[in-house]
Design goal:
- This protein is of the alpha/beta class and about 210 residues long.
- The chain is about 40% helix and about 25% strand.
- The protein has a single domain, classed as 3-Layer(aba) Sandwich (Rossmann fold), CATH 3.40.50.150.
- The chain has seven helices and seven strands.
- The protein has a seven-stranded mixed β-sheet with strand order 3-2-1-4-5-7-6, with helices on both faces.
- Strand 1 (about 50-55), helix 4 and strand 2 (about 75-80) form a beta-alpha-beta unit.
- It is globular.
- The termini are far apart.
- Mean pLDDT is about 90; it is low at about 5-10.
Length: about 210
Amino acid sequence: MKRSKTSKKWMNEHIEDHYVHEAQRLGYRSRAAFKLLEANDKYQLIKPHISVVDLGSAPGSWSEVLSKSLAKEGKIIALDLLDMAPIANVDFIQGDFREDSVLLELETKLANQPLDLVISDMAPNISGIKAKDQSGIIHLNELALDFARKWLKPNGHFFVKSFIGAQFDDFVKEVRLDFKKVLTFKPKSSRDRSSEVFVLGQYKLDN
């Protein structure tokens, strides 16, 4: 099958991408690692002995950042619909976070212990239809927020990928109901043409 101009452009960008080369040099599974690394450098999300859930974890670059940062001094549970090769000190669940049975499996692993940090890189399968993709990621954002509301400790943090679009501002307003400080963050490692933006809720309120 002949490659489209779009796929050729993406491949050229990928080959020339600084963060792709850095990920390979440092041993991360994907360039996405730098998005979490940048956020952590700026906002100090990852601290010793914390408990973390990584939603939408595959192929595992965010879990690798957590594993390298925490070693055996914290608890990391990762979840994704896709399989993920093992990572040291990471407990992985393969399943659809939207399904009650998968959520129950995750909550069982928590053993009634609240979390310090919930991070989510979940995204829908991209259709190219902006309104559909926006609606899909906002739904995942809201599920992640509901989980964070239930399981984060007071003063815990929530970091989630979203897309700029019609429903984005309403989602940010929802996050503001549960956190002392809420901001948006566009990492340098996020491609310029990407509509992705990250929402950070800091210091969960003890509602």
